[in-house]
Amino acid sequence: MEESIIKVEHLSHRYSIQWAIRDINFEITRNGIYGLLGSNGAGKSTTMNIMCGVLKQTEGEVYIKGINLRENPVEAKKHLGFLPQKPPLHMDLTVEEYLVHCANMRLIPTHEVQGAVKDVMGRCGISHFSRRLIRNLSGGYQQRLGIAQAIIHNPDFVVLDEPTNGLDPNQIMEIRELIREIAVDRTVILSTHILSEVQATCDYIRMIEEGQVVFSGTMDEFDNYIVPNTLFVSLIATPPVEEIREIPGVVAVEELGGSKFRIQFSDALEATERLVETSVTKGWRLVEIRQEKSSLDEIFAELSKK
Ligand SMILES: Nc1ncnc2c1ncn2[C@@H]1O[C@H](COP(=O)(O)OP(=O)(O)OP(=O)(O)O)[C@@H](O)[C@H]1O
């Protein structure tokens, strides 16, 4: 049996009278990068804050490596690293001083602190800035340092809240690369409402809407969530729309101009075969025919409606 890295059971949270999340359940048993996706206010930060032990849930349990976070927070947090939306950096310390402070906070034995700091600076590509004041680092390097403090104690499970927020495109690419590197031997959950972020970085998706999980699966499963039901067809001839509509399997036809059509079908195989046949018989001279997949934005919108 695969070992449980994180397990969330019947998690619910109410801030005052309104439930922010309601009965969230999931378990992760495999390393990789998991995207926690959802619109603004869906409940991502609430879920992450509870998973990281910085917010006490109203109901339910979180287990990290089988350890109940509520009952045994110190032990559970040894396996957990967290980069909140605003990295908890001390601007007047140097990179090295700050990481030594984090190592001490994480109860790393004194004789191992220097080694752990050196190692994590290397992994996060910040060794050359070890003596620089944090306030003088660029946003991208501050974020690298934020990730460094999250993994200094070598946790199995790392939570990153909107890790590329506010970075420029080059810095975003670098941070994504770093996330991929640290996820090689651990589980990373990152929250975002940016779809391209999930697409570029994550292997798996959990989507939350109105405090409930509405999707859980691989990136590929998310991509194929809406079964395609339209064909894009380009012809040399311009047949009357009625003639296309009569083809078995075709439900509706939209003219796109320039002898191009969007054709809604009930049966993909039948509509495609008949269209190709009819095009040959009637001399429509087919140039292109392809199924149109829904964009990630459309899938997100569809799931948000639930
Ligand atoms: N401290 C709080 N007090 C009262 N309500 C809150 C508090 N924090 C969040 N909420 C409410 O709980 C719900 C979930 O919020 P949460 O911040 O978890 O969502 P989110 O998905 O992280 O959104 P965002 O992407 O905007 O950060 C929202 O309706 C929000 O208004």
From TrEMBL:
Highest taxon, organism lineage: Bacteria
Gene3D superfamilies: P-loop containing nucleotide triphosphate hydrolases
Gene Ontology MF terms in the entry: ATP binding; ATP hydrolysis activity
Keywords: ATP-binding, Nucleotide-binding, Transport
Residue ranges of domain ABC transporter in the record: 6-235
Entry's family note: Belongs to the ABC transporter superfamily.
Name of the molecule in the record: ABC transporter ATP-binding protein
Organism, as annotated: Butyricimonas faecalis
